[in-house]
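#struct-help
A.M.: can someone run this one for me? Single chain, 83 residues.
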Amino acid sequence: MRKKLPLDREYNYFISNQNELVRRYNKKILVIRENSVVGSYKTFEKAYNDTVKKYPLGTFLIQECVAGEKAYTTYCYFNKTNG
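D.P.: on it. Structure tokens below:
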């Protein structure tokens, strides 16, 4: 069995709702937090820079919203480190 990873819930939300999300946000960069889209952006950088002002690192997923399995290839986890 695979170890549960941080943000699995958000990633699974994207996969489970991918068709509807693509219809609504095609080719946008989504910010997903607690099973909800909390932002839609044109670039990863804008999504990240805006979202870290609102939510702690490690509590949201930034996901490209595209159709098909190519959306499954990027899964990044950012975590604030001390020091």
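A.M.: thanks! The two ends are 34 Å apart (CA to CA).
D.P.: also worth noting: The beta strands are 29-32, 37-41, 61-64.
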